[in-house]
Amino acid sequence: MSTEAKEQKPAVPLPDPTLLVSSSPHLHGRESITKIMWSVVLALAPATVLGMIFFGIDAVIVIAVTTISAVAFEAFSQWLRKMPITISDGSAVVTGLLLALNMPPGSPWWLCAIGSFIAIAIAKHLYGGLGYNPFNPALVARVALLVSFPTQMTSWAPTLYMPPDSWTGATPLGAIKEHILKDGTTGLQFTWDYLWQLMAGNVGGSLGETSVIALLIGAAFLLWKGYIWWQVPVSFIASVFAVTGIAFLFNPTGVASPVFHVVSGGLIIGAFYMATDMVTSPVTKRGMIVFGVGCGVITSVIRLWGGYPEGVSFAILIMNATVPLLDRYSRPEVFGARRKLYEVRG
Amino acid sequence: MTKPIHFQGGVHPAYNKQFTAALSIEEMPLPERLVVPLSQNLGAPAKCLVEKGQEVLKGQPLGEPGGFVSTPVHAPTSGKVKKIDFHPHPLGRAMEAIEIEPDGEDRWAEGCGPLRDFDAMDAAAIRKAIWDGGLVGMGGATFPTHVKLSPPEDKPIDTFILNGAECEPFLTSDHHLMLQAADKIIAGGKLMAKVLGARHLMIGIEKNKPDAIELMREASGDGGFEVVPLDVEYPQGAEKQLIYALTRRKVPAGGLPMDVGCVVQNVGTAAAAYDACARGIPLIERVATITGSGITNPKNLLLRVGTLLRDVIEFCGGLNADIAKVIVGGPMMGISQYSLDIPIIKGTSGVVFLKADEVTLFTSQPCIRCASCVKSCPMGLLPTVINAYSVNEMFDVAEEYGAMDCIECGCCAFTCPSHIPLVQNVRRAKAEIQARRKKAS
Amino acid sequence: MIVNAILTLAALGLLAGLGLGFAARVFAVKVDPRVEEIDAALPQFNCGACGYAGCADYAKAVVEGKDPGLCAPGGPNVAARVAAIMGQEVSAQEKMVAFVFCGGSDTAARKKYHYNGVIDCISANLVSGGDKSCSYGCLGLGTCVHVCPADAILIEDGLARVVPELCIGCRKCVEACPKNVIHMVPASRVVHVVCSSQDKGPVVRKACQVGCIGCRRCTKAVDDEQITMDDNLAVVDYSKPLLSREPVESCPTGAIQIVETEFTAQLPPPAETAGQAAEEAQA
């Protein structure tokens, strides 16, 4: 500044006591990003553990590599962006874990690492980091891997508890798609035992998506905590049930039962954990319902008439793109926005 | 029997009323100095009537109203005017105040004290007594009471509501006022209802005060006020939410309670109204909850308006070492203070002293679109969206999203996991929108 | 095969080019050529200081008859050129730059509380007037930095400072500052009372070491009322020339300061010894 200023004396002391002043409110409910993220990890624990039990050491490696590399890429990206490193908040762990649960059990370590890189560095940090990404990072990575490495991403493995000769190499949804391509029928024997296998998770598929029961336990926990709201999962699952149900009524041999559709594939994990991702889903209740219905309809269309046997990932990503529009046109009514006549009391 | 309806949103902060819930009201002895600010209401400040060195009596006007939306201020005790100068004020900037040196005799001015035939007073006389008494909303908003009791002809009032909700954590002054002065409150409420011509009288009290509910029912008797127990939720005591809970009427956006035929008054204001009409006693003292873990001896204190916070702190045993925040009002909507030299004013419902480990700091973490704020907003707004537009200085869009409808209750920031200063950002938007509206007119 | 492809694409390109050229001529919007000339003469900051939505908009307005001398960043040169294009003349106006009239850095000025909230002066001002003990002082949270289109403002030690060489004179900082401590001064002026406090001397001393205490010594150190008192604050009258170091040396707190610019050399050299300066201050 000026060269002629008087010599600066040391700082003037602050008042005693120096009080903290801020805008109201001065209390806080003690919710935090860290708490939310680690609660999601906790909710995914049953499915993770069951995935490791069903698919063995391969699954442990996939989960470990994906999750650790996700955290590493997050630290690296934040360091590159000269931001504080916030890996302890658990958000990279959540993304990594969700991606791991969406990978085929025998995925090679390099596939997992590339997936983590896409999820964290590209789908999250290129958009500005936590809170700024428009697309679900785990799903972006999964779809990118599926398109780039189709063979590895569709090399399914049997669980350790399947009868030795029963493994066909396909997931339940994959099996019926193949059968339909052959002769127009699903070839599905939807017995109660098979339903139980699907609920428990003793079927082929991504290592976290198979066990419906484990996923529902975690989802119940998140619903109870209020971290996810019922609007998205219920409307997602209900619309899959509705669309596949209507198709099933018209074509009972060529379309699998809607109950089968609900418990197979990535619907349960998608509806309760991926579509409900806070950053990439709407903030209004009405918006959430439209979002869920959109996801459900697109999932059903892909499953029934599309080339892929499973459509949850694509459906969610497509609907992620519509979220700003949904938010804009689903504003709740402000208290008192409409003048209502009231009865005068004598 | 009215069953209250639940308003949307809201939060459940920990009550923290145990500090003072069981303590009956204690009267603080006359301090050695009293500083009475001229600005103690929403609206114009009072105009000074006295000069330095003048002797004044208790209840004597020190300042006259500066307009219609303004109230007089009175001497809280007899003594001498020591000086008239700028002095720290709970609103955060120094304002003109009159310092009184008490003479210790506490002599009333003429006309203050003896019981009058208040039953014979008509609406105009009651309103005048309330204005002359300097009454303002004692729940904290400090809106001049006589103005609230003067709705225009085309807005008839059929329902008069007394607000005994006291939904803010920590505060118990209204609770204990209801326990100790239930008759006064009812009588004062009836006087105010008379001014309005309202025939339907209700009192809302949160369910966590069952003793107050019972006492107020007794005091009200038959055909008086209907006492309605309310669900314990913040902000149950906010005007719009209270009216909705009790009458199912929604105050229109941008409007006032009189638009739906209602007027709400705090129970403390009702008690003061009785004093003003029945005894000509102006508003010169009030009950305030001095509470929190940051003060050694919390109390429900009956204080003279103008008592300095320093003197209150000393009377209550002093501050604890880890004191971090001193809040005038409740902790959800009150104003955090930087100076302990502020006076207690007419609208000071309590002072909350928080220690460092009880305070959560706002941060600059990003919004994760969790929609907790949307869930908790009692006005049905989208705080996260208004916040985003305010931060990006797109104030006209923030206005479209209802920024001006925000009641600044703080529910959104209370629930925000990213600790975003949502209310501050909405206030910024509101200030800008108001400035633009003013410029345009 | 490849020859066919090249010929086809070349023909398509030629057709498209001819089409565009035809459209450019036939569908051209008739624009007064002076609009483009004026726009080319403007500095392209698009800052809005002229009151129009960018340089192109101002160029249009000038051709429609508005004042040609409104471009503050362009200064007298641009004003003259724009006026010349319109066949007019403008009076030469001195370049004005922004100046922060506060010296209360974190070292010199007291804070009255620990602030927690939005790091922005306008927002902080909503919280009991900001955390500076002096209610008139710069809050140093950078709202002015944020609005400056020329990156001419720095925050040093919690105090905003305008770099005069970079300032384009658009006045955005003046309007943005919630404390109103930034004002425009002629670029050639180097002696300023770097304080905006209207508080009385003892109050100022408690709040800030370099504030103006209203002692009036500076008013006696000048001969033509170049510095006058506005209540308790000394104010320089920029309409009168002031080329003396005496007010600076007379100031007991250091509130009057000299800014280092190309114009500082016009001042006489400093007093010979520090003792001499102290004597003059005592007088």
Plain-language structure description:
The complex is a heterotrimer of chains A (346), B (441) and C (283). Chain A has 346 residues and is mostly helical. Chain A has helices at residues 33-55, 57-80, 91-101, 109-122, 137-148, 150-153, 172-183, 192-200, 212-225, 231-250, 258-263, 267-274, 285-305, 312-329; one strand at 20-21. Chain A has 2 domains: 33-153, no CATH class; 164-328, no CATH class. Chain A contains 14 helices and 1 strand, in the order βαααααααααααααα. Helices cover 57% and strands 1% of the residues of chain A. Chain B has helices at residues 123-132, 145-148, 173-196, 210-220, 239-247, 267-279, 309-315, 372-376, 383-391, 395-400, 411-415, 422-440; strands at 26-27, 34-37, 47-48, 55-56, 61-64, 73-74, 79-87, 95-102, 159-164, 200-206, 226-230, 262-266, 285-291, 299-304, 323-328, 335-336, 350-355. With 441 residues, chain B is α/β, with parallel strands linked by helices. The termini of chain B are far apart. In chain B, the strands form 4 sheets. A 6-stranded mixed beta sheet of chain B has the order 1-14-13-17-15-16, covered by helices on one side. In chain B, strands 2-8-7-4 form a 4-stranded antiparallel beta sheet, with no helix packed on it. Helices cover 28% and strands 19% of the residues of chain B. Chain B folds into 2 domains: 1-29 and 112-359, 3-Layer(aba) Sandwich (Rossmann fold); 372-440, no CATH class. Chain C is α+β, with helices and mostly antiparallel strands. Chain C folds into 3 domains: 30-93, 3-methyladenine DNA Glycosylase II, Chain A, domain 3, CATH 1.10.15; 104-179, Alpha-Beta Plaits (2-Layer Sandwich); 188-283, Alpha-Beta Plaits (2-Layer Sandwich), CATH 3.30.70. Chain C is built from 11 helices and 9 strands. The longest helix of chain C is centred in the first third of the chain and has 25 residues, at 2-26. Chain C starts with a helix and ends with a helix. The model of chain C has no long low-confidence stretch (mean pLDDT 89). Chains A and B meet through strand 1 and helix 1 of A and helix 5, strand 15, strand 16, helix 8 and helix 11 of B.
